[in-house]
Each structure stands twice: as C-alpha cells, then as structure tokens.
Amino acid sequence: MRIGLLSDTHIPEAREVWPQVWDAFKGCDAILHAGDIYDLGVLDTLAEIAPTYACRGNGDDGSGGRPRQPDHPTLQDNWVVTLGGLTIGLTHWVPVPESPGIVNLAGACERFFGGVTPDVIVHGDTHVEDIREVNGILCVNPGSPTFPHNLNYQFGTIGFIDIDVDTLAPSASIWQVSDHGIETFDWLRWGPRPW
C-alpha cells in the first residue's frame, strides 16, 4: 500500500500546487494532507486521485489570522485512520523533536488523537521535511511542495509511506519536486537539520 503525503500548500499564496505533485500521487491508495491548505479546491483535486484525509493547520482553523475554513468531507481538525493495517495520526503540528519536560509526543497524542498512540504520525507546519522515530512512533513531515523551508514559491517536497501489508512494516520517503516530476530528495542539500 502506498500513501501520498503533503503539507503546507498555502494556495493561493503559492500560485498553484505543481502539476508534478498530482502526477506523483496517481496510483496511491490514499493521500494525507497535514494542513495549511487555505484553498479547499486542493482537496477536491486530491480526492479525484485517491481517498484523501486532511487536517486543519493554523492557517485553516482560524487561529492564524485567516478565517476558519468551511467544512469539507475530507477535512477535520485531526484524524486517526487505519490504512494498510496501521494506525496513522494526522495533525498539523506535533512536538518533533520533543522538548522533554515541556512538550512531548505522548501529550500531543492525548490532545490530538484522544489518547490513541498511532503507529505513524504525519505532520507539517515547519515546511521542513523530516523522518524520525520517536518513542516507537514513525513521525513524518513531508515538508512543503510550494514553500520549502519557508522560502519563496519554488519546487519543494512531498512524501510517501509504503506499507508492507504482510508484515505491517511502514517505510517513509521524501521526494523533491522537479521540472521532470519528482526525484530522490538530497538530504545533504539543505545541510543539517535545525534541531
């Protein structure tokens, strides 16, 4: 099973989601958008490609100075879904990396997922791609396809989770949008992570 991941599309601040992103998600079994969508037409396009789940980001929920986005069949504040036999939590922000004693992932699971501890958490907000395991949970931030690292509108990143449905083993990957589609992300291009 393959799940497409994206976050922080910021349409119409970003002129459009690159067509390469739509093409890359063809054949996915599901698509998860980790918030800061702004224009819900993005969700309509994603839903034409595969079943879509999206969460409200701080730019969608009314807390970031923009109006709260209206209801949409694919949109909730947070999701807990079962895909490929794994429990996946979808939210805009989680404390990854953790700040021990102040903010931790267990508290975020309680707050956003009703105490469910997912196998995988997909999140966004930072516009910085990241894959790491925290307390046994695979945490994936696909970055932003339109504003990578909060820079100007340019080619950014998307992600995938591939699940072996026989072993329930997930693997995550980040991909760079390019003129020719998507290509393997060069982790060294951006230098060390800020944390």
Characterise the protein shown here.
- The protein is an alpha/beta fold.
- The chain has a single domain, classed as 4-Layer Sandwich (Purple Acid Phosphatase, chain A, domain 2), CATH 3.60.21.10.
- The chain has three helices and twelve strands, in the order E-H-E-H-E-E-E-E-H-E-E-E-E-E-E.
- The chain has helices spanning 19-25, 41-49, 105-113, and strands spanning 2-6, 30-33, 52-55, 75-76, 79-83, 86-90, 120-122, 130-134, 137-141, 157-164, 169-178, 181-184.
- A seven-stranded mixed beta sheet has the order 4-3-2-1-10-11-12. A five-stranded mixed beta sheet has the order 5-6-7-9-8, covered by helices on one side.
- The protein is globular and about 40 Å long.
- The protein starts with a strand and ends in an 11-residue tail after the last strand.
